[in-house]
Every structure is written in structure tokens, then in C-alpha cells.
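User: My instructor asked us to take a sequence, write out its structure as C-alpha cells, and then describe one feature of it. I'm not sure where to start. Here is the sequence I was given:
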Amino acid sequence: MSTQKVAIVTGAARGIGAAVAKRLASDGLAVAVLDLNADSCADTVKAITDAGGKAVAVGADVSNEESVATAVTKVAEELGPPTVVVNNAGITRDNLLFKMSVADWDAVMGVHLRGAFLVTRAAQKYMVDAGWGRVVNLSSTSALGNRGQVNYSAAKAGMQGFTKTLAIELGKFGVTANAIAPGFIETEMTAATAERVGVPFEDFKAAAAKEIPVNRVGAPEDIAHTASFFISEGAGFVSGQVVYVAGGPKD
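Assistant: Let's start with the prediction itself. The C-alpha cells for your sequence are:
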């Protein structure tokens, strides 16, 4: 019987999620590449399998309880019991408070917080049974506050409290939980933000880089490296931590 560990990475069709999925596959894990539409995961899965790794595409709405339950069962049947979860799925619906609709608030909370809750709850039984597990949640420097992102900031701050409570509840079962809070990462999401504010993306990145001590914006692979550490055997004594991966100190 194979002892290969199985990871679920949400929002893994592109960006940070895709980079994390590829890194975990290179680390030797079988990876469920999960996104809203399974077809959108094809490129990530192909990159993994072409490199000799094992991956399957899984379509699921992480904010929907039935969809998540079906997806996690599919992963267990096709790859094996999932003992690693990376809650990366996320959306933005930016606006100033007085302009923000209830629908935009609920959508962001649904994907980030409800999604992380549902996926982790569905997978934790496999971790407890195995006596080993890893949960990595994606927060953000926006958890500290960011103009025009009251919904996103609240959700990302909530991810940190969620993480610390998971660490307390699941630690006795050999399960760790940690959060990564990225700063400016070059992704389709940040490109969309630049477009929304009417600034060319290259100028947007250059302005951000000036505020970062290492003088560059981040890449998805920067986050993937951090996730790889948290999921490694060597990180078994690290739990309940929030690490800001932002190129330098934050206020």
C-alpha cells in the first residue's frame, strides 16, 4: 500500500495555488488541484504530471457544504486520504465601506472563511485517523487593514484566528495549522487590482517594490516555498503561527 501523502490545494488553477500545488508535488505528495471549475485546473495538473508527479483536477465551490463534501470524498477515493490542506481559494470584491454591497461582503466571507472551514472540517477526520496532518491557510498583509478592502481584510484577519484555534484543537492528534500572510505577490489578482485603479501593472509593481525592503514584489513561488516548509516533517513543532511573507518588516 502506498504511503504517499495526499494534499488538497484550493484555488489551485493559477497563481499562488498553482505554485503551491506544483511545489508539493515536487516534494513527493499527490495533489488534488481544486478550483471552482475542474477544467481550469488542467494546466496545473499537466505541469505536475509532466514532471513525474501525481495530481487530479477537482471542481468544487468551497463555499458550498455539499460540493466540498463530494470533492473531499472524491480525493480520498482517487488519491487516498488527504492529510494536507492548503486553503488558498480567494476572491476580491474591493470597494469603500459606503459603496460595498452586502453581496460583495458575503461573497468574500463565503470563499475565504466559510470555504476554509468547510474544506478543513471535511479533511480533518483523515488527519486524525492518520495521527498526522498539516493545514496551511492563506491570510494576507491586508489583515492589518487596507483601504477599500474592509471585506477582504476582515476575512484575512479571520483566517488568522481560525488558524490559531485549529492549532489548539488538533495539535493533540499530530496535526499542525499555520498561516501565511503574503504581501504584494505578482498574480492575476494583483494585475486586476491595477486595472481597477487605472494604473499600468508594471508601474503598479514598481511603486509597490519601492515600499518593500528587498526592493521587489513577491512571486507565487515565494509563498510555495513557505508552504512547503510548514508541510514538511521538520515543521512538526511549528503550529499556530502566522508568517508574513512580505519582503521585510511590516508596521
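For the description part of your assignment, you could build on this observation: Strands lie at 6-10, 30-35, 55-59, 82-87, 133-138, 175-182, 242-245. Try explaining in your own words what that tells you about the chain.
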